[in-house]
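name: query_chain
kind: protein
chains: 1
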Amino acid sequence: MNAAEAFITAQTAPGRAPLVPEISLHLAGEITPIWQATEALLAEHGMEPPFWAFAWPGSQLLARHILDHPELVRGKRVLDFACGSGLAAIAAAHAGASEVLVNDIDPMALTATILNARLNGVTLTSLPGDLVGTAPSCDLIVSGDVCYSRSMAESLLPWLRARAAHHPVLLADPGRAYAPRDGLTLVTRAEIPTTLELEDRTSRTTTLYLLHPAVEG
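structure:
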């Protein structure tokens, strides 16, 4: 076990997301201890906050929809973009995807995702680095809860819309302020339990959209 894997397993315990009890994840029981632990590493090594330690509403809805509709991914090459804990990716692997690629700019998220894949007996292909501006080889992109800041939304959405001209892009969002408001087709919606430690409420109405390509002109 390397240092990153040891850190993740020390700071988390196997648990299950409310909407997707079929899948086990390395989850933080409380936000404060793991946030404090990563703050020291953030200062020392430039590490990202531990978004990978929680099952965010967007990833839960994506995973639930994939498991309930396996035909969406069966036999396809799926990319879980900004994968976090890898929950949606693991669901796609269980649902019969031919290959599941996982990407996150945070190396710790990729490590956590691979650990989570092992917990569930599936294999994922890690695709590190910043994919924005590239053309990854896949049949479907899924992405959950990536519009939590203006800078993230302004960086990612134009690229995701560009990719939507080539293959479907599914975007799950729990009502973040910077999520797109048009150029979307509603796929499904659910009320997903959260905690006051992570959110400002005990549940979030989360929506899964099919993202439309950018309109020329």
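note: The longest helix spans residues 31-45.
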